[in-house]
Specification:
Distance between the termini: 44 Å
Organism: Linnemannia gamsii
Largest sheet: 3 strands, antiparallel
Number of domains: 1
GO molecular function, one term: monooxygenase activity
Shape: globular
CATH topology: Cytochrome p450
Family: Belongs to the cytochrome P450 family.
Low-confidence stretches: none
InterPro entries: Cyt_P450, Cyt_P450_E_grp-I, Cyt_P450_sf, Cytochrome_P450_Monoox
Keywords: Heme, Iron, Metal-binding
Length: about 375
C-alpha cells in the first residue's frame, strides 16, 4: 500500500518541496554567521526544531530516556504502565503525536477531496499516501483504516526525521574534521549545479544530485562509518545453529550495523577510517592510487545494512538519501565548518546514533572566488 508513495517518480517530484525547509535552514544559519562580530559563530548543528511540540515529543520518545529504561520497556511489557515520571512523559508524547497526525490527515484529506491542490501543493509524502488510499475501494481491497494510516504517518515522521537529522549532523562533523572532503563536495556541487538562486527557485533535481559521484560516495561512507540506526533486531522463526551457537526458535537477536560496518575482514585495515573513495569507480583513479584503496564490491554488501536488506529493506531509503543530499547542498554552498577546539562528545546509541551533548562546530561564510572555475 505504501510502496507507490516511495516510487522513483514521486520522489523526483518531491525534491522542490523537500528543498524549501532545507533552504530556509541554510538562510537561518547564514544569518547567524552574518550577525556575528568576527564573521564566524559557534553553535550546535544537531538538527532540532526548538519549540515544536511534535519534534520535542519524538525527542522524548527516542532519546529522552536511558538505555536501561528502553530495555525494560522492550522486555518487560507491563513496565510502561508503571507511573514513573518518564513513563508519564512517554504517554503524553504519544498522545501529542497522535493528535497532530490526526489533524494532518484530516487537513490533507479535505484538500484532496475538494481537489484544491495546485502545482506545488500535494506532492509531499503524506498527501501522496492519503490520495492513494482514497482511491482504493474497500478494506478488503487493501485500503488502510484511519488507525493504520495514522500509524504509518507517525512512523514516517519519527523514523524519517530523526535518521535524516543525525546523518546530516554527523556529515557536518566529518566535513569539519576532513576539510579536503568538505572542499571536494562543495566544488563538485558548484561545478555541476551552481549556487542557490536569489529568486528562491529550486536549482536541484533528483537526477542532478544523484549524478555527483563524490557526494554519493560520501553519503554511502557516512552511513557505513556512523550508521544512523546502529542496531536492529530479529526473532528466530525456527531452531538454528550459527557459528557453533545454538539459536532456539523465538530467540530475540540484536544485529549491529555499527559492528558489521567496521569489519576489517570485509572493508580492509582502514575500515575504521572515513574513506569515501572506497565507494567510487576504480577506473577514476590511477593504477598507483587503486593499490591503496579496497573498493566496495557486490560480494561485500552483506556487511552494509544502513537500510537493512532484501524484503525488510527500508521502504524510505531513496527518500531519506535524497533528503540528506538536499540538506547538505543548502548547508554547504555558502557556509564552511571547522571543529571547536576542546569540544568533546560521545556517540549515544538509542533508536538513532546521536552525538551527546550535541555537535558544536565553528561555522563561517564560505568566500566564493569569482575568478575560479570549478
Amino acid at each position: 500500500m505504501c510502496s507507490p508513495a516511495f516510487s522513483h517518480n514521486h520522489i523526483k517530484e518531491m525534491v522542490p518541496t523537500m528543498a524549501i525547509p532545507a533552504q530556509t535552514l541554510g538562510k537561518i544559519w547564514e544569518g547567524r554567521v552574518d550577525a556575528s562580530e568576527n564573521g564566524s559563530v559557534e553553535f550546535n548543528v544537531a538538527l532540532t526544531v526548538p519549540g515544536n511540540e511534535v519534534s520535542q515529543a519524538y525527542h522524548q520518545l527516542l532519546t529522552g530516556v536511558s538505555l536501561t529504561t528502553l530495555m525494560l520497556r522492550l522486555y518487560v511489557p507491563f513496565y510502561v504502565d508503571v507511573p514513573f515520571k518518564h513513563n508519564r512523559i512517554r504517554k503524553q508524547s504519544i498522545q501529542i503525536i497522535e493528535q497532530v497526525t490526526a489533524k494532518i490527515i484530516q487537513k490533507k484529506r479535505a484538500r484532496i477531496l475538494a481537489d484544491k491542490e495546485d502545482s506545488e501543493d500535494g506532492k509531499d509524502l503524506m498527501s501522496i499516501l492519503i490520495r492513494a488510499n482514497e482511491q482504493i475501494g474497500t478494506l478488503d481491497d487493501g485500503r488502510l483504516t484511519d488507525t493504520e494510516l495514522k500509524a504509518q504517518i507517525m512512523t514516517f515522521i519519527g523514523a524519517g526525521h530523526e535518521t535524516t537529522a543525525v546523518t546530516v549532523t554527523w556529515m557536518l562533523h566529518i566535513f569539519s574534521t576532513h576539510p579536503d572532503v568538505q572542499r571536494k563536495v562543495r566544488q563538485e556541487m558548484l561545478r555541476n549545479i551552481g549556487l542557490p538562486t536569489e529568486d528562491n527557485k529550486c536549482p536541484l533535481s533528483y537526477d542532478a544530485l544523484n549524478a555527483l559521484p563524490y557526494l554519493n560516495a560520501c553519503v554511502k561512507e557516512l552511513l557505513r562509518f556512523i550508521p544512523p540506526v546502529p542496531n536492529t533486531s530479529r526473532v528466530a522463526t525456527h531452531d538454528d545453529k550459527i557459528l557453533g551457537y545454538d539459536i532456539p526458535k523465538g530467540t530475540h537477536i540484536v544485529l549491529s550495523a555499527a559492528a558489521w560496518h567496521k569489519l576489517k575482514s570485509v572493508y580492509g585495515e582502514d575500515a575504521e577510517e572515513f574513506k569515501p573513495e572506497r565507494w567510487m569507480d576504480p577506473s577514476s583513479f590511477s593504477e598507483e592510487e587503486q593499490k591503496s584503496i579496497k573498493f566496495v564490491t557486490p560480494d561485500m554488501t552483506w556487511a552494509y545494512i544502513p537500510f537493512l536488506t532484501r524484503p525488510r529493506n527500508c521502504i524510505g531509503s531513496k527518500f531519506a538519501t535524497i533528503g540528506v543530499k538536499i540538506l547538505l547542498y543548502y548547508l554547504l554552498m555558502n557556509l564552511e565548518y571547522a571543529p571547536v577546539p576542546g569540544f568533546k562528545f560521545k556517540k549515544s546509541p538509542r533508536f538513532v546514533m546521536r552525538p551527546d551533548p550535541g555537535m558544536r562546530l565553528i561555522v563561517k561564510r564560505f568566500q566564493h572566488d569569482t575568478h575560479v572555475t570549478y
